[in-house]
Design a protein that fits this description.
The structure holds 2 protein chains of 2 kinds. By secondary structure, chain A is mainly α. Chain A has 2 domains: 47 residues, no CATH class; 211 residues, MetI-like fold. Chain B is mainly α. Chain B folds into 2 domains: 50 residues, no CATH class; 234 residues, MetI-like (MetI-like fold), CATH 1.10.3720. Chain B has 14 helices and 2 strands; from the N terminus they run ααββαααααααααααα. In chain B, helix 2 packs across helix 14, helix 8 runs antiparallel to helix 11 and helix 13 runs antiparallel to helix 14. The longest helix of chain B is centred in the N-terminal third of the chain and has 33 residues. Chain B is globular and about 75 Å long. The N terminus of chain B is likely disordered. The chains are: A mainly alpha, B mainly alpha. At the A-B interface, helix 1, helix 2, helix 4, helix 5 and helix 6 of A face helix 1, helix 2, helix 5, helix 6 and helix 7 of B.
Chain lengths: 289, 306
Amino acid sequence: MSASVAVAQSRAAPAMRLLPVGTISARAILVALMFVTLMPFVTMFSAALAPSGTYPPGLQWPANPQWQNFVDAFQSAHMDQLLLSSTIIALGVVPLSALIGTMAGFGIAKLAPKGSKVVYLLFVLGLTLPFEGIITPLYYEVRALGILNTKLAIILPLIGLYMPFSVYWMRAHFVNVPDELGEAAQIDGASAWQQFWLVQVPIARPAILSLAILQFLWTWNQFLLPIVLVEVPLERTMAGALGAFQGQWGTNIPLLCAGSLIILAPTVALFVIFQKQFVAALLQGAVKG
Amino acid sequence: MSLADSQRSRRARLPTSVRGRAVLVAWAFIVPAFIFYATFVLVPIGLSIYYSLLRWDGIGKATFKGLSNYLVVLSESDFLQILGNAFQLVAYFTLIPVAIGLGVASAIRNHLGGRFGAAARTVLFIPQVIPLVAAGIAWSWMLASNGVVNQALGLIGLGGIARGWLGDFDFALPAVGLIGAWVLLGLCTMLLVTGIARIDPSLYEAAKIDGASAWDEFRWITLPGLRQEIGVCVTVTVIAALASFDIVYIATGGGPGIQTTVPGLEIYRLAFAHRQVGLASALAVVLMLLVIVCVLPIQWLTRQPK
């Protein structure tokens, strides 16, 4: 009996007829959660529209909304340059680290040369590494390489720092691909390289996409490396530059809020457009990481 | 190339003749990743350990000091407070999101379908895609003396306890903890909601027939069924708390006093402001070990087969 009720309920729910009590209370809970989640953005937005330089109350629709604040924040923070700089850094990190992470995951899972298990263990050891743990030597290393204060100072270390997760993630994918596929390609006379590009990568596309999304988010939002390794805010990621603006505008709440909203807009926009892929990546990423 | 093709052109190859080459090719796939990892992670870890044995200002000559930096980190009261702060943050970063997430997951089990569920999912994930610094700025503003938190307190007649929360000696650390809880709440909730949807509904049916209370259901079906997901939430949030940096840097800068200073922030300060590279590195090694020591038991407890 209860099973048929459940079926009836699940049929009724999408049609919005006769919402059961459970659904109503569930929605009330979700609305409360969404409220808590969105509140910080709403109050930043209301503050961003207050006259520049004033100290507005927490939440109040301003009598005379100052949309100009967004323009001022954009210009005085050189957001266009920052967007470009962040994009260059992300483009420097994501494709290369996704590629070599995928290659290593494939090599360890499918080609498995002797000794690769030990190498894999070394990678896994790095999974929980807090970046602060190595930031000091990283600074001296990057300085010795002569790339301090350039974008490369962020790009190259990040690729290395992403390898534990990338290799772990891609190996987990390749381990589940049946061996027959690779064997069939080998019998066809395909080299390992051909097999990788023509057989394995096409199948691995969803896993690689999730990996790339996560690497993009981590890069775009990276804060510690930019503030330590790059002195000029305009050469940093947007998140790294935000730290400098807070010092610069700490007392001008409307401009600081407008600037923060502009800085978080690109990832939120990308997220809303590609939400299915993002949600999948974030959920799986947490589980596997 | 399809399977049919491969069957048509099946030619036997002699794998032994190319064995050595195959091993080289296999390593060629692995080595690029390993070079980056070794250069920018393994070598720095080694250097962190090496620096931690030195007294060095980062410029002049270093002197070997043995384990004395560790002695300072593990015995001086300021360092103990800083490490303690990290553990207090664990209480907020971990307990609040996991407890609320469990409550929400049990309450909305099987009710996250349709457009409404999809919208909720999108909104709850937003804190995961924005930079933590932005979350820090937003919440600094929420918790400021004329921010929305105090405004709301005034509305419900609690205006008397209003204050600048992040500057308050007693409330600054809990306030920072709250920011972290906000960032992690959505992720934990969604993980647990997805997990609970995978639990066999017939278990709940059977419990209902047996007259089990809601608590019994939670204790004997939901909790064991979500063990793995809870493990994931706890692991992610504990690491986020112990290794916190961005939020604290932006929201309080570690103050007032060292009330909200966490190991990550102290490492940054010691190494780059006070030029005490040895001490910073000893704290860094302690932090790295602390994370591993805290995460491993969680993995053990929750990764066993159900």
